[in-house]
């Protein structure tokens, strides 16, 4: 979960040209709506959908691990916390 939050923080900080430390992220899961995140930047709140989360994870994997990942390889899941499973093969 921490790396998903880091991925979203880094992605949003780059997108809005603000320091990473000014980005707050809360990951959310709803049975009807699926995965999302509430992001607060400079006292403004935004809601990201699952596709946005996967985009952030893809960029994070490339910049932090030099690993190209595609959305079809990322599976978000929730048990006690939200986590991402990244498969080796593309579909």
Structure characteristics:
91 residues; alpha+beta; three-stranded antiparallel β-sheet; DUF2653 family protein; Uncharacterised_YxcD
Describe this structure in words.
The chain has 91 residues and is of the alpha+beta class. The protein has one domain. It is 34% helix and 35% strand. It is built from two helices and five strands, in the order H-E-E-E-H-E-E. It has helices at 2-16, 50-65, and strands at 23-30, 34-41, 44-49, 74-78, 82-86. The strands form two sheets. It has a three-stranded antiparallel β-sheet. Strands 4-5 form a two-stranded antiparallel sheet. Strand 2 (34-41) and strand 3 (44-49) form a beta hairpin. Helix 1 (2-16) packs across helix 2. The protein is globular, with a radius of gyration of 13 Å. The two termini are 24 Å apart. This is DUF2653 family protein. InterPro entries: Uncharacterised_YxcD. It comes from Cohnella abietis.
Write the layout of secondary structure elements.
Layout: H1 2-16, E1 23-30, E2 34-41, E3 44-49, H2 50-65, E4 74-78, E5 82-86
Antiparallel strand pairs: 1-2, 2-3, 4-5
The radius of gyration is 13 Å
Number of domains: 1
SS element count, helices: 2
Instruction: Please give the order of strands in the largest beta sheet.
Output: 1-2-3
Largest sheet: number of strands, sense, barrel closure = 3 strands, antiparallel
**Helix residue percentage:** 25-40%
Structural class: alpha+beta
Span of the ends, CA to CA: 24 Å
Order of helices and strands: HEEEHEE
* Percent of sequence in beta strands: 35-45%
């Amino acid at each position: 979960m921490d790396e998903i939050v880091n991925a979203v923080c880094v992605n949003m900080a780059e997108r809005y040209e603000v320091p990473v430390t000014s980005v707050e992220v809360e990951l959310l899961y709803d049975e009807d709506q699926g995965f999302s995140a509430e992001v607060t930047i400079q006292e403004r709140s935004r809601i990201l959908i699952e596709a946005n989360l996967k985009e952030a994870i893809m960029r994070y994997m490339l910049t932090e691990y030099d690993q190209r990942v595609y959305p079809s390889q990322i599976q978000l899941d929730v048990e006690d916390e939200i986590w991402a499973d990244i498969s080796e093969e593309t579909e």
